[in-house]
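Query protein
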Amino acid sequence: MINTIGRRKTSVARLYMEDGSGKITVNDRELPVYFPTEVLQTIVKQPLSKLEVVANYDININVDGGGIKGQAEAIRMAIARALVEVDAENRPELKKEGFLTRDPRMVERKKYGRRKARRRFQFSKR
């Protein structure tokens, strides 16, 4: 069994992968139940379809934090890292697609004396 972690924005995905029939479970739910849209399911499966090993592994994922898109991309990173752990030959192909790169962008915190992170209150001359 292989354990990896993927992160995106404030989402953290912990992945447990073993040989199997291609079953993907997210937070104890099937992939199509947790991610109902086709786009998000495609994002999650991208590293597997790139290497054409979709039906080779059973994957169990615990994900939390952030929004649904950030969670999908965190899972994608965790799967890519697990596939590199399985076989180091996969690394260049996955790196070229950007699946192994951590996207560090997060929401900037709100500052005191401001309306948002950078937005000032409306200036009034009189």
Q: What stands out?
A: Strands lie at 2-8, 11-19, 24-26, 29-30, 57-64. The helical segments are 31-34, 38-50, 68-86, 91-97.
